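Researcher: We plan to redesign the surface later, but first we want a full-length starting point. Tokens attached.
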């Protein structure tokens, strides 16, 4: 598969952004390639196109599958697995948000809730420290409730909400820095 200079730039940048988001560069680049591809690709094509080792591609494909960002597609007369990425940006965002919530935020909330229960019994813990712990827990719980409220909205409704939310934020202004 030949990549245009624009496609190369997109894939390279997606890999760079992936590293900033805590995702392996190769995983992100393969995801970008599959996202931009107009047909399913098999592992050897991915290796050749991105000049990557087969083992690295195999590991990265498994990671992308575990996230639910790509799926296997079988081609008639070809025994190799071919791979397709979700093509809808809103669906990709939803999948990534849900996986990050499961892998990062849910375990954090569990520990913070445990700490809140233990803090009530910890006589050596200063009140100010307990308050800061409670504030973080309350913040994450509000954030997760909001996420749960909005995650099932259809993309068109969510887009309207986000556009309206921006207008509301501008209307309300930024004078409430004390609330942050």
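Model: Full-length starting sequence:
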């Amino acid at each position: 598969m030949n990549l245009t200079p624009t496609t190369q730039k997109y894939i390279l940048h997606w890999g760079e952004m992936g590293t900033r988001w805590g995702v392996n560069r190769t995983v992100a680049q393969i995801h970008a390639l599959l996202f931009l591809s107009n047909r399913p690709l098999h592992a050897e094509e991915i290796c050749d196109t991105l000049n990557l080792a087969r083992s690295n591609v195999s590991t990265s494909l498994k990671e992308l599958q575990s996230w639910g960002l790509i799926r296997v597609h079988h081609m008639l007369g070809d025994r190799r697995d071919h791979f397709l990425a979700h093509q809808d940006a809103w669906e990709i965002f939803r999948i990534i948000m849900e996986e990050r919530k499961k892998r990062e935020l849910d375990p954090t909330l569990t520990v913070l809730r445990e700490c809140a229960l233990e803090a009530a019994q910890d006589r050596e813990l200063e009140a100010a420290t307990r308050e800061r712990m409670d504030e973080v827990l309350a913040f994450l719980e509000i954030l997760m409730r909001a996420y749960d409220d909005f995650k099932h909205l259809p993309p068109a409704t969510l887009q309207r909400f986000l556009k309206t939310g921006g207008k509301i934020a501008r209307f309300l202004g930024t004078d409430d820095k004390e609330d942050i």
